[in-house]
Design brief:
Order of helices and strands: EHHEHEHHEHEHEHHEEHHHHEEEHEEEH
Helix content: 40-55%
Distance between the termini: 25 Å
CATH class of the largest domain: Alpha Beta
Strand order of the largest sheet: 2-8-7-6-5-3-4
Strand content: 15-25%
Number of helices: 15
CATH superfamily of the largest domain: Type I PLP-dependent aspartate aminotransferase-like (Major domain)
């Protein structure tokens, strides 16, 4: 059976150049700060993002958690959007490990926070927790891979600075946002105190994320990483893939092709399932969120039916599902997936 895996851009396999780099990587014990390949990746990533230093971690979830632990104290308030990955998809790590209170905010249909709304909940008074951190997401996963522009980021950062609050950017797919806007990634990160991005989302790396920020922040983050069990030893073997992802011209630039495939997929879904199924305005990068519900068959059922026919997607919640395009699916795969979806729809609609 032909399989088209649209569950996530984390399902990609390392490229041949990455596998070659893994075999040739010069390694050392990163627990002692002696792995030159890890150090090179951290320096390269922080330079690309316009930050002083970087830290290689096993996952984006851990990188975000480390940032929260360094920036806050137990009992502090962290402001984010109500569908933020940090809030909804990280298993409550901020509560379990950091002991912080999340102040979730509603966004518009594009996943954008309203600066005035944020300001209205910062340090409300003696009976409220102290606001110390705002977390923004670019691209916004559950909003459908939507982008934040440099100007929109600046508006939020201005509010934060006025009130002495820090800003952390969950930039798991920051390079998707940069390519969609045709801007340097630094333009999307310069107003944020710290930033995280994933090497394993869209960039074909098997594992790993980088947290970047001021040198003193990274020094503290190293200890927190160790505390959480994220310290690694000869990690240059996997860091080598990250260097390839950031240095090879066709890797980050290739994300634009993923965006084109997502648009093609989204337009096909809207044609098959109806215009209400997909908000095409939100399809700005490589994520397509869709809505489906009929009498007797909900979104979860549809996802299960498609999986039995080789089209792998994700049910998020309620009537909402998600598909993600990536390096390892091509336009022919998308066309085939749409053919299968159309055949299924003909039977149930």
């Amino acid at each position: 059976m032909r399989i088209v895996d649209l569950r996530s851009d984390t399902v990609t396999k390392p490229t041949p150049k990455m596998r070659e780099a893994m075999g040739k990587a010069v390694v050392g014990d990163d627990g002692f700060g002696e792995d030159p390949t890890v150090q090179r990746l951290e320096e390269l990533a922080s330079e690309i993002l316009g930050k002083e230093a970087g830290l290689f971690l096993p996952s984006g979830t851990m990188a975000n958690l480390v940032a929260v632990l360094v920036h806050t104290h137990p009992g502090d308030a962290v402001i984010c959007d109500e569908n933020a990955h940090l809030y909804k998809l990280a298993l409550g790590g901020t509560a379990t490990f950091a002991g912080v209170t999340i102040f979730p905010h509603r966004t518009d249909s594009m996943g954008r926070l309203e600066p005035a709304g944020i300001e209205s909940t910062i340090n409300l008074g003696p009976h409220f927790p102290k606001s110390t951190l705002i977390v923004i997401e670019n691209t916004n996963n559950l909003a459908g891979g939507t982008i934040l522009t440099p100007g929109e980021t600046r508006q939020i950062a201005d509010v934060a600075k006025e009130h002495g609050v820090l800003v952390h950017l969950d930039g798991a797919r920051i390079f998707n946002s940069a390519m969609a806007q045709h801007v340097d990634a630094k333009e999307l990160t310069k107003e944020c105190d710290t930033v995280m991005f994933c090497l394993s989302k869209g960039l074909c790396c098997p594992v790993g994320s980088v947290l970047a920020g001021p040198k003193d922040f990274i020094e503290r983050a190293k200890k927190v990483r160790k505390m959480l069990g994220g310290g690694m030893r000869q990690a240059g073997v996997i860091a080598a893939c990250g260097i390839v992802a950031l240095e090879e011209e066709d890797m980050i630039a290739g994300l634009e092709e993923d965006h084109k495939k997502a648009r093609h997929l989204a337009e096909g879904l809207a044609r098959i399932l109806g215009p209400a199924a997909v908000n095409l305005d939100t399809v700005q990068t490589n994520i397509v969120c869709f809505n489906f519900s009929t009498e007797g068959l909900d979104c979860k059922d549809l996802v299960e039916v498609l999986a039995k026919k080789g089209i792998l997607t994700i049910h998020l919640y309620g009537s909402r599902g998600r598909m993600v395009t990536h390096h390892d699916v091509n336009k022919d795969d998308i066309d085939y997936a749409l053919e299968v979806i159309e055949a299924v729809a003909a039977e149930i609609l």
